[in-house]
Structure formats: structure tokens, C-alpha cells
Design goal:
Elements (H helix, E strand, L loop, with lengths): L2 H8 L3 H13 L10 H13 L3 E5 L20 E7 L1 E11 L20 E2 L2 E3 L3 H20 L5 E9 L10 H6 L7 E4 L8 E4 L1 E10 L3 E2 L9 H21 L10 E9 L5 E2 L2 E10 L5 H18 L5 E10 L2 E2 L5 H14 L6 E3 L5 H5 L5 E3 L14 E3 H18 L5
Parallel strand pairs: 3-6, 3-7, 7-17, 8-16
Antiparallel strand pairs: 1-2, 2-6, 4-5, 5-18, 8-15, 9-13, 9-14, 10-12, 11-13
């Protein structure tokens, strides 16, 4: 680290981090309803405390979420902080301020909205997913601003709403409206402070099998759709899942396909004439949604043709988002890895992110993206979610150094 970097790192304060993290956890933003008004104000106030130009942005009522959850857009504010340097690229730091629900409170060691500190860990809903990343990005920017570090380009800090509701009133709106037009981005998510170069694309499939209804006392008179579907589920897991997992690219986890929801029949005394299956598929760059859909159709076609009772079927794609796939040699990745090495004191290697993030929203802009943040991803969405204070400090310092190097000015 050079002297300027050492100065910035010295301004990142463990006590301030702990206090601010507790406040973020105590601000309820769990979806539903995912009301981010309180936490957005907290983020805005912290950025403005350090003299960072900040605004609250709210999606207009014309922005409609396909989730049809009936929640007013006024409750979905996001924050945009800006440090304007000399003309140059725009770097986005993005992390979401909404969370999933706390769930069964009896499963929690502590109140999930208190922010209890125990043995160097802060407990609470959103501690890792994603308020730890929100904090680290804000603290990094505040330290840079306080140290009066000259930057080349524009640094945007974006604590964003609505990620847990698929981002329609958050990152998608900010991208599509042109409010955010970054040239490169660091997306804050739970990576255990490892640098992820990508995440898999995602597709949801709905498979429907049509049989024939009959009286439950006369099953031979019908064509039981649930029996066909149960055989199909077994076939998918025995044949298609291993096939998709066979070709694993570097850094990313292998393609996964999970049969997650099933519904069949209307009454107990009626042979089901229809059965519907939901499938979650996370795909590496070498696998497309069209290929997976085609393979599902192949298996259904084969089953029907070989069955004593042929059936009708359909496969529909109901949700699809592209993934993130940044070259591990890109300067964004190399710079972030180098900053992490200097903070941690040992060599680090790139990795991939298992879950899905707002990185996919900005990947549609064709820009380089890294995914980085504190917290064990295994703990996200689970009882007793927590994050290490040491990791919060490490992430804040790493981001500060990386931003300085990516936006280095000649001054």
C-alpha cells in the first residue's frame, strides 16, 4: 500500500463499523413488505455525514412489479451517493438494503432485529445478506471522501431496494431508466470476502402433464397425471441432472437443476387429470435455457411414447435472467484481488458466486462486474444469520483500496 492508501485505511474505524452495522440491522426492511424508507435514510445520513452528495430515488407508480404484491412504490426508496472526480469511467458500488423475513423467531439465538454482538460476530436478519456489503461500500466511500483522495471518474454508491422481490423497483428500474449507467460495477453479496468473477444464469421451468380424470374407486378408467410426473421427476434426476453437471467451467459451480414444486389433483377421490412441476435451473455459460428446455421435452416425449397410457405435456420458461461472466484477467478483478491480498496479507484467487444477485441486472449493459462482500453465503436466509466484524473491516478496507486504484488520478 502507498501512503495515500494507508491514510484511507487508517480512517476505517472498527467501532464506527460496529455501531453502524447494528443500526442497519435494527432498521426493518424484510420483504414482504420490504419497506426500505428507514434504512435508506440511515444510509443517506451516513454518506452525507462525510460530505458525499446523496439523493433518495423512488420508482414512479408506472413501474410495475410482476409479483403483484400490492406494495406501494413509495416504500421502495434506493440511495445514490456520488463522488465526482475528473472525467473518467463510472464505477458502481451496489448492494441491496432489503432482506428476506426472519422466519420462525424461536429458531434464533438472539432477536433478529437487535444486532447483538457475540464473540466478534453481529447477529441479525440481513447481517450478511446484504447489509454487511451495504456497510462496507459506504464505509469505503466515506474514508476516501474524508481523506480527500482525488479520483478519475465518478464513484456511485447505491444501497438499493427490492432485490429480494426480483429488483423490478430497484436495480432493473435504475438500469432501464438510465439513472444508473456504470462502466463497471462491484456488486456486494455474501462471498466470504472472496472475489467472484461471475454467477450462473437462471431459468425457471413449469412442466405440465395432462392425463384423464376418473373416479378414485376406478383408477383404471383414468390416466393419472401424478404417476407420470413422479416418473418424470425420477428420470430428470437420474439422467438430466448428472448430464448438466458434467461440464464445470473454471470458478463457477456446475449447472444445477432442482425439481422444487409439484401440484396435482383437485380432490382425494378423483384421479388427477393434471400435474404441474416447478424447476429451478442455474446455468453456467456453456448451457442455455433453450438447451435445458429441449432436453426436458425430449424426456417427456420419450416417456409418453413408451407409456401404456400416453399423455399430453408442455414445458414453459417462466423466469430467466442472464448471469455474470467476467474474465478473471480483467483489470477490475485483478485490482480487487490485489487490494484484498494487501489487506489480508496473503495471495487470493478468484471464485464464483453460487446465488443470484443484482449483478445480472447490470450484466445486460455488457460491463465488467465483480461480486464481493462479507459474510458466509451459507448463513443467508437462515436463522442466526451473522457476520464477522473482522470481515466487515476487511471488506471496507479492500473496497477503499480497490476504488482508489481503479480510479487513480494523476494528482
Amino acid at each position: 500500500m502507498n501512503s495515500a492508501e494507508q491514510k484511507v485505511v487508517s480512517l476505517i474505524n472498527r467501532e464506527e463499523i460496529t455501531s453502524f452495522m447494528k443500526a442497519l440491522i435494527q432498521a426493518h426492511s424484510d420483504y414482504p413488505p420490504g419497506d426500505t424508507r428507514e434504512i435508506a435514510e440511515l444510509c443517506k445520513n451516513k454518506l452525507e455525514e462525510y460530505g458525499i452528495e446523496t439523493e433518495i430515488v423512488i420508482p414512479p407508480e408506472t413501474v410495475i412489479s410482476p409479483k403483484n404484491d400490492g406494495i406501494d412504490n413509495i416504500t421502495k426508496p434506493s440511495v445514490i451517493g456520488k463522488i465526482q472526480g475528473k472525467p473518467g469511467p463510472t464505477l458502481l458500488l451496489n448492494a441491496h438494503i432489503d432482506t428476506v423475513p426472519a422466519g420462525d423467531l424461536s429458531q434464533w439465538k438472539y432477536d433478529p432485529f437487535e444486532g447483538v454482538v457475540d464473540n466478534g460476530m453481529i447477529y441479525g436478519r440481513g447481517a450478511g445478506d446484504d447489509k454487511g456489503s451495504v456497510l462496507a461500500q459506504i464505509m469505503a466511500a466515506c474514508a476516501i471522501k474524508k481523506a480527500e483522495i482525488p479520483l478519475k471518474g465518478t464513484l456511485l454508491i447505491n444501497p438499493v431496494a427490492d432485490e429480494e422481490a426480483h429488483s423490478w423497483r430497484g436495480a432493473r428500474w435504475l438500469r432501464d431508466s438510465g439513472i444508473l449507467k456504470p462502466d463497471l460495477a462491484i456488486i456486494g453479496e455474501q462471498t466470504d470476502n472472496e472475489v467472484a468473477v461471475g454467477e450462473r444464469s437462471i431459468a425457471f421451468f413449469v412442466v405440465t402433464i395432462h392425463g384423464k380424470a376418473a373416479h378414485g374407486a376406478m383408477p383404471w378408467a383414468g390416466n393419472n397425471a401424478t404417476i407420470h410426473m413422479s416418473k418424470f421427476v425420477m428420470l430428470v434426476n437420474e439422467e438430466l441432472v448428472p448430464e448438466l453437471q458434467a461440464n464445470k467451467p473454471p470458478y463457477l459451480p456446475a449447472t444445477t437443476l432442482a425439481t422444487t414444486r409439484i401440484k396435482g389433483g383437485s380432490l382425494t377421490n378423483i384421479i388427477p387429470e393434471e400435474c404441474v412441476l416447478g424447476i429451478d435451473c442455474r446455468m453456467t455459460p456453456n448451457i442455455t435455457k433453450e438447451y435445458v428446455k429441449g432436453r426436458l421435452e425430449d424426456l417427456l416425449r420419450k416417456m409418453s411414447e413408451e407409456s401404456d397410457q400416453p399423455f399430453e405435456w408442455s414445458v414453459e420458461i417462466t423466469n430467466n435472467d442472464i448471469g455474470v461472466n467476467t474474465d478473471a484477467e480483467h483489470p477490475l478483478i485483478k485490482t480487487l484481488l490485489g487490494a484484498l491480498k494487501d489487506v489480508r496479507g496473503k495471495q487470493v484467487e478468484p471464485t464464483g458466486y453460487y446465488q443470484h444477485s443484482d449483478g445480472s441486472r447490470f450484466a445486460k449493459l455488457g460491463i465488467p462486474i465483480a461480486i464481493f462482500g462479507p459474510g458466509d453465503p451459507v448463513l443467508g436466509h437462515a436463522p442466526n444469520e451473522c457476520v464477522s466484524i473482522d470481515q466487515l473491516v476487511e471488506a471496507s478496507k479492500t473496497l477503499a483500496i480497490a476504488v482508489m486504484r481503479l480510479m487513480a488520478s494523476e494528482d
